[in-house]
Amino acid sequence: MFKLALKMTLRDWRAGELHLLLAALVVSVAALSAVGFFTDRIRGAMLRDATQLLAADLLITSDAPLDPAWVETARRRDLRTAGTVSMVSMAGAGEGDGAVSSLVSLKAVTSGYPLRGALQLRGAATDAAPPTDVRVSSDAGAATGAGASTDAGASTDAGVAADAGGAGGPAPGTAWIDTALEARLNAGIGARIRVGDRAFLVTRVITSEPDRRFSPVNLSPRVMIAAGDLPATGLMAPGVRARHALLVAGNGPAVEAFRLHIKARLDAANAGNMRIQTASDRDSEMGDTLERASGFLSLVSLLTAMLAAVAIAMAARRYMLRHVDACAMLRCLGLRQRQVMRVHLIEFALVGLAGGAVGVLAGYAGHSLLLRWLEGLLPAALPPAGWLPAAQALAAGLILLAGFALPPLLQLANVSHARLLRREHDAPRGATLAAFALGGAMFTGLLLWQTGDVKLGAATAAGFLAAGLSFAGAAWLGLRALALVRGGGGHPAWRFAITAMRRHPGASIAQTVSLAVGLMALLLLTVVRGDLMAAWRAAVPPDAPNHYLMNIAPDQRDEIAQRLRQFGQPPLHANIRGRLLTVNGKPAGGDNKDYRRAVDANDFDLSTAAALPPASTLTSGTWFQPGSREREISVDEAMVKDFGIKLGDRLAFDIGGLPLDAKVTSVRKIDWRARKASFVFVLNDTAAAGLPRTYSAGFHVPEGGEHAIGRLSRDHPGLTMFNFGFLIRQLHAVLAQVSVAVEFLFLFTLAAGLLVLYAALAGSQDARMRQAALLRALGATRGQLSRAQWFEHLLTGALAGLLAAGGASAGGWALARFTFDLPWSWSPQLWLAGLLAGVACAAAGGWLGLRNVLNHPPLLALRQSPTH
């Protein structure tokens, strides 16, 4: 049987019967493998870059010293570690009347810091060279650049659990300070500052710190010292609040195993004050961005897989219809049904393996060419491609071939000898329908495996199924409606076109649905993709606030506002510190001990606003009415869910010793990703009257504006300045990478979509050839047939284009609303684009069809064209 199958495969290849099927398989596997290789490497690079925000692959933080045994456990797992201790303290410079001091965020680091990312420093001047930039980078914390210092012997005192290996961090007796403290203390490189009981020589100025996050111990200007110098400062007294951190980096599986090991011990010990973080965590600084980026890339991969499935299904159906005579001959020569089926299965297996191997090689070559082409736009030193994308793509091709090519073969094999010779087919039997269901289930499983996103994969599969059924229903209604306009003013070409479409409703509907599905995917990745990416970019604009100023006293408000006018005159928001005491007279948090503990241990920042804040959306209730004499409060939606607060409840606060009682009159949903100042509790003017407050402002400082910020900090030492420009730059870098990746992957999806369109048009070519031959034999002119086919193609294309536009609009709204959580606006241009694209594709297919069909003599066409 194998020799017979091999001979049939070679014969079909020479006859061109396998070209469309093999092309569909190669393109689909190439697209999926290219998507897999590229996204795997891009995701790896983005995740690697995101670890810079933790300075490690894994971060464990606690308010108490961490267990030193964890370091030894990590070392046994071939992991690198470093440790930090952060706290709020005072630093001073100068003597006598010229002495100045400032509140600082002190950070003691071990020699391995940072394990990932880079500390960017301004180095000291020497006789031979001017001041230089120094970069203490990742990978064992190696320091590069002029004058880079090392500290291979830093101790692990004061609860800093760390590995003694590595290099980087301040040398003993020295300190690194940031630009804000340099300006505030007027203490540059070479000056001496005092922290606690110890004096330090300033040797570097920190210009960028990768893992500096928004927290109470990080709000003030930075002083960084060696961990071994921390005990000498005398600051680690009992009861001092400090944040201890253990940084871990190494091989991915080893890091994950260590995380699970530590998590199990924390869960067993009920250590609620400890936290384990990775760069991909949903609540980390980059976790949400990485999740959304993966969603965009997964969307492209899913649409490519969908189009590949449609192309293979149509190519397999065309193969089946063109092999009726061959199957009839084999059955008449004595082969049994199982033997005929086995021959075709072997042939399809050979095609699948050959097409899959060629597709994987083409996909790898394509992604390699792209990397060379976009070398300057992509992150440097991308991780190498793994074997999993190749295995996934090859398996995907075989699954697609089995799931969508077997049902037509089963339908063919189940037909009797006589009906095969007459080329008539019964309705699909139970086994054929079961094969279709199995193929759909296998394909859905493939999508989930390919993307790793159950929600997105299931939603995309369900959306395509719903779109296909909806398109089929709309196409059927369209055919029924065409019967009402069949007269067409008596034009014979119009009547020929309508009659041809209604004579074979199944083929007409299949062609319309295929065109509509292919166009929908392409529209979703052109117009809609652009809208989604634009909305994402709008969430992190280039001028997004990168500095946050706090603790502005009321008597400083006007002066600070005047000095901030050069940064766009950002609004100043009131900060009212208060503790939530009761809800309707009952303790806040109710019976939930965790909520009660959180309320007791933390104060909230309340604010006041006359208008609804720009990053908030009102979900229930009404906003404050001007002139209202009742004390009112608006609450964040998350707080309402956590604490069971509802409209009409009365909340009692302690505001610096002053009581406050206010009624909940509205609930808001805050978009924290908008990076605008937002507050969980917002008071109306009546409730906020007379309460102690400070002010804060978020604003964008362009490059070169740091000196003005430094002067502001020096003139007002009590202000707290937080610079998170590094985070904004990382978000923009991820956006750029994802944009490039999506643009590239769209090329493969476009190829798959064009193949679907070609398969949809080529699938009806044989039937058109037969029909044209009959009409020409009956006296129809070439011109009449040409116009009739043009009418038919244009009607099909227009209907498919409108359906595709509707599907793309609905799909874009659903993706923006439920998957990416982005704003969405309906675009009328999308409908015009869909209509024009459908007509253009149909016109191209019509030209090909007219050229191939009408150029054949009627007698030759009748002999060569199979009847369906």
Task: Describe this protein's structure.
The protein is α+β, with helices and mostly antiparallel strands. The chain folds into three domains: 2-48 and 288-539 and 731-864, no CATH class; 55-278, no CATH class; 547-699, no CATH class. Helices cover 52% and strands 17% of the residues. It is built from 25 helices and 23 strands. The strands form two sheets. The protein has a six-stranded mixed β-barrel. A six-stranded mixed barrel has the order 14-16-21-18-20-19. Strand 14 (573-583) and strand 15 (586-587) form a beta hairpin. The longest helix has 38 residues, at 725-762. It starts with a helix and ends with a helix. Mean pLDDT is 74; it is low at 125-131 and 140-167.
Strand order within the widest beta sheet = 2-3-10-7-9-8
Q: What structural class do helix, strand and pairing data support?
A: alpha+beta
- The stretches of 5 or more residues where confidence is low (pLDDT under 50) are 125-131, 140-167
The proportion of strand residues reads 15-25%
Number of helices: 25
Write down how many β-strands occur, each being a DSSP E stretch of 2 or more residues: 23
Basic shape = elongated
Q: Distance between termini?
A: 28 Å
Largest sheet: 6 strands, mixed, barrel
What Rg do the Cα atoms give? 34 Å
Number of domains: 3
Averaging pLDDT over every residue, what do you get? 74
**Considering DSSP H and I runs of 4 or more, what fraction of the residues is helical?**
40-55%
Membrane topology: Multi-pass membrane protein
Biased composition (Low complexity): 137-159
Region (Disordered): 127-159
Domain ABC3 transporter permease C-terminal: 299-414, 744-858
